[in-house]
Amino acid sequence: MSLTNYLVLSTLLFTIGTMAVLLRRNGIIVFMGVELMLNATNLALVTFSRMHGNLDGQVFAFFVMVVAAAEVVIGLAIIVAIFRTRRSASVDDVNLLRN
Amino acid sequence: MTSASSLVTALTEAGTTSSGEATLFWVLAPLMVLGALGLLFSRRTIHVAVSIAGVMVGLAILYVAQEAFFLGFVQIVVYTGAIMMLFLFVLMLVGVDASDSLVETISGQRWIGLLAGLGTGAVLVGIVTRASFAAPVGLEAANTDTNPVGVSRLVFGNYVLALEVVGTLLVTAALGALVLTHRRRLTRKVGQREIAEAKVAQGARLTPLAAPGVYARHNAMDVPALDPYGEPIEESVSRVLRIRGQEAAAEAFALQEDAEERAVPEDEWLTTTEDPDELEGGEQK
Asked: What is the ipTM for the molecules in this complex?
């Protein structure tokens, strides 16, 4: 088995995450789609690190994880704040600037 | 890390993986894609969260298989342990049954999104499969001092500035979450003193509620207490018992001047005290 299979799996997961962001309307599910995209890029980074024989790719993946953790904290805080005021977690209901 | 694991994960001369790793990949990859598809097709958010947690565990196993031991364990701790649990907590706050609205606010969004997603996937898979990579090196040389040591040399060496910046980012994010979820109090706080003053102003009851009438003959909670005038106090019986209609009449158990005028017939309570089974049933009443 060639290492390209890992990359194909990574692109498949990335595509599914993209489609979740584009198609789903629940804010939390959209957010999980973003997380899946980040994870897919991490898999690609780890695979590239193995291909090139140095650990820089793994360090990049580590930093991606840290930034993802910070992003989740802020994103979920925003979702909770919106839910408190609007009683909905749907991304379509956040049209404050319309009308 | 150990010799056994490096034997399994070592690349062959031609740059391909061992058959053991290939088996692991072909078992895990379809499961992970299925779990990820739950993101698109699951109706309930909680199912999506659990399937994504499964995908993340699968990714951690693949990291370990690819000689990224440190990242594999960080993946388990950070993603499945912290991030997905945070998602579950927010689901609990928002409500598990927060379902999707099926009304399209942008007309044709579903088809545009489907097309854009499939196009992205086709482009990415095309690039990855058609690109010609150099022969894979493998990480035996880089992992000679174990993988965590190698990663930490880079993190605290070449990338130490990035590490500092990321630490600042984490602190800022924690503060930001506090600020975003902080709720400003719109009315004055109602404390003990305010409640007491409101009660006095209303003329409501100031003292605690009376305890139910517990008598030597009938020590259950369903008998109302009697006030100094001999009238039963309805509030002394638990509200649940009152609503169920299980409240007993106080007159039957109260001390009365004339013993012959007791509401409970003499023979009835005599028989209950004689029969132990009946006595227990009476106590539970």
From this structure: 0.90
